[in-house]
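Predict structure. Chain length: 334.
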Amino acid sequence: MDSIKRLYIRYLLHYITVSKSNKKSGRNTSKPEKLVVTDKSRNLFNQVRLKHLLSIEKQNRGISKDKLLFVGTANIATYWWCAEKAYLNSRENELMFFFIYLEDRLKYSLELNLIKKVPTSEKEILSAGSDITSKDIENLLSKKSEQEDSVYFYTMSNRIRDTIDLSGKNKIIKRSKNSSNAINMNSRNAPLLQGKFDEKINAEKYPTIRWNFPLGEFVFIGIPDGITSEFVYEFKSTRNNFLKSFIKPVAETQADFYGKFFNRKEKRIQIHVLETNEVHTEQTSIDENRINNTLKGFTEIVNGSEAFPPKPWKCNACEYISLCPITPIKLRKH
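Prediction complete.
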């Protein structure tokens, strides 16, 4: 888990830990104390704690602890890029999305004065936010003047002028004042990182908010790139027009889900083609059929059906190539 995730998890979980240790020692718990642990032990402990809370949450909902429950809307939309990758990615990141679910519910419960302090028991943490309504989320959204970063957005210091290569040719994003601080774009998160920088520069700016939505057998976590009174907004970038035709269904699906979740009738999609530096814009109605087809297909895979295979060239750069059951054997990396 990266430093951003650890920071958020420490913020949430140290209240549980300090409360329990203080009760055992007879200390006054009116003011939480700081929890001092090493990065290594914090990372391990927090994952163990989150897994325990996730197990309780699933038990409370009457489902198996092994059943996939918390998913990211963006991950599910990649069903139209590769259905198996959408499933494997969702499995791998369920714990992260469960944490986001908890963090948002706690944060907004405090902001809405539904609770007076951060809860200290597991039962209180899991129940916090259950009384937040869609009207509450709209009221919170109305207070936001511009897009805010989600837990998986990346930012750089304002003190350093960044020179960013968005052509897809270079593999390093350079910081002009210190080349030793260059960001390695050969990492697993490179496409996400480069896409987020492109979004910061080229996307239209609207307010947004992150929240969770039950649908079918899952709880979706979603944060559009923007929300207005009339539409949800989604921005994507891709290297060339050939890839644009494969990215577009993903963007449309993601925006369709957001439109349903936030009760907007239209979606506005922009795709930036880096090769030509053109931004393609479409604004259309939310497609309920696409939502239903995606949810049905993804649910079937979760419940044991085999995913339909993607174009073989997509497998070459996939991080799940060695694990994927539908990847052609000759493409697998041993």
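Summary: The first helix runs from residue 3 to 25.
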